[in-house]
Specification:
Layout lengths: L5 E6 L9 H12 L10 E6 L7 H14 L3 E6 L9 H10 L4 H4 L2 E2 L5 E6 L5 E5 H4 L3 E7 L14 H8 L2 H15 L1 H15 L2 E9 L5 E7 L4 H15 L7 E7 L13 H4 L14 E7 L18 E3 H5 L3 H10 L10 E3 L2 H9 L12 E4 L7 E5 H5 L6 E8 L18
Parallel strand pairs: 2-3, 2-7, 3-4, 7-8, 10-11, 10-14, 12-13
Antiparallel strand pairs: 1-15, 1-16, 5-6, 8-9, 14-15
Helix pairs in contact: 1-2, 6-8, 7-8
């Protein structure tokens, strides 16, 4: 089959971002008056840990500075469940990859993992907490509000989930994911987060919102009393502005890279229309016949959770997989399906040919092919003529094309999306 030619398009999205992240953070914290409760000498724990958040180290550093100005002693807690292999040194390494180190943010990082059982929730969920959280005067959370890749709800990924999955470290993450099979993810998160709010000295959460092109759009200070309702409101705002693939039916989707810094599931399940877990129905849209993922991001450090969502991949990607990190993350998250290795071929050309040979009677003029950098980079993308014909022309701008798909001497794709959003 002859390969279709491609068109470089840009989705029209409403976008805005903060011009001065530090200034906004300082203003929001001052307006909230949360630091009025921090006395000199108080021990404050700042919980962090999500990947792919723009300006994350800067926000944490400025927050630490504000706390130190009040005379507080500050510690950084890796609140990330089983990431980094589920052990302290691995989680410290993950934070370093995010740019969060003692030197860069001005505070020490908790390098132990002593756990305390605080009791159980009304439905009998064990409430584990890192001992550091039970020995401090105040707790602040810093996380992004965004859609979750494993479920849909009025609250998804954000401050409540960071508490539910991160405060109990690997023990807590395992318990929450297991109970989500029984109770549902959102219900479990809400119940566990409420219990933490009742039993731990949570001062506030710093909620970060991203713009469609991956910049910081807003910062909100959220106090515990309104955390659930505020997360619902902020998630609604984020969903409204989140870009998606511009058509419902796709024959072949090429994804340059996947990884934990892109999405908790390696590839955003809401973008590709595949969730693959036992406690959530599959999305109705988009419908993608074949997904070809080419490589892992360096930032994922070999964690390939989500590779099972693809149909084809490359042998170079498989060679980069850290099987232990992937295994631990998948089992803790109760999603072993996402560690399944798809058919891995020696080159991009062979993988792309395999995609085209398994979509039915299509030719270069009728194949709806879409090529993206990753599932968070959806403003700039490449599409075939058949795909372009099904996209509302009012929603995109055609930048160039038609362009031939080219391969290098090793039969790997010559990347067209380098540097694109």
């Amino acid at each position: 089959m002859k390969l279709p030619e491609l068109y470089h398009i840009r989705q029209k999205v409403h976008t805005s971002c903060l011009q001065d992240v530090k200034k906004t953070l300082v203003e929001r914290v001052a307006e909230s008056r949360i630091l009025d409760h921090v006395a000199p000498g108080a021990k404050v724990v700042v919980a962090v840990g999500s990947r792919g958040i723009p300006n994350y180290p800067e926000v944490v550093r400025h927050l630490v500075e504000l706390l130190k100005d009040k005379g507080a002693t500050v510690l950084i807690l890796p609140a990330m469940g089983s990431h980094g292999g589920g052990h302290p040194s691995g989680q410290v390494r993950v934070l370093a990859e995010l740019g969060i180190t003692p030197k860069k943010v001005g505070a020490g990082i908790v390098t132990t993992m002593e756990m305390t059982l605080l009791g159980t929730t009304p439905n009998g969920i064990a409430l584990w907490a890192d001992q550091t959280l039970t020995e401090c005067g105040h707790i602040l959370l810093v996380n992004r509000i965004k859609p979750h890749t494993e479920f849909g709800g009025r609250i998804e990924s954000g401050l409540l989930k960071m508490m539910a999955i991160g405060f109990g470290r690997r023990n807590g993450a395992t318990e929450v994911h297991m109970r989500a099979v029984q109770l549902g993810y959102e219900r479990t998160i809400r119940e566990v987060a409420r219990a933490y709010i009742e039993r731990l000295p949570i001062l506030a959460g710093i909620a970060l919102l991203d713009s469609p092109e991956g910049k910081t759009a807003d910062i909100r200070v959220v106090v515990p009393a309104v955390m659930e309702s505020m997360e619902e409101e902020l998630l609604s705002i984020v969903k409204e502005g989140s870009p998606r693939l511009p058509l419902r039916d796709i024959d072949v989707l090429i994804i340059d890279e996947m990884g934990k810094n892109v999405s908790g599931s390696g590839m955003d399940t809401k973008v590709i229309g595949r969730i693959m877990n036992i406690y959530e129905p599959e999305p109705e849209s988009p419908r993608i016949a074949r997904i070809f993922v080419r490589d892992l991001t360096p930032e994922t450090s070999g964690n390939a959770l989500g590779i099972g969502l693809a149909d084809f991949t490359t042998q170079r990607l498989v060679a980069k997989i850290d099987t232990e990190a992937t295994r631990i993350n998948c089992i803790t998250a109760v999603t072993p399906e996402k560690a399944r290795i798809p058919i891995a071929l020696p080159s991009d050309q062979e993988a792309l040919r395999a995609c085209l040979e398994t979509i039915g009677p299509r030719d270069e003029s009728s194949t709806r092919l879409v090529w993206i950098r990753n599932t968070t980079s959806l403003v700039d993308l490449f599409v075939s003529a058949a795909a372009l014909a099904e996209i509302d022309p009012a929603t995109v701008e055609v930048l160039e094309g038609p362009l031939a798909i080219e391969f290098d001497r090793d039969d790997n794709l010559v990347t067209l999306l380098r540097g694109a959003v």
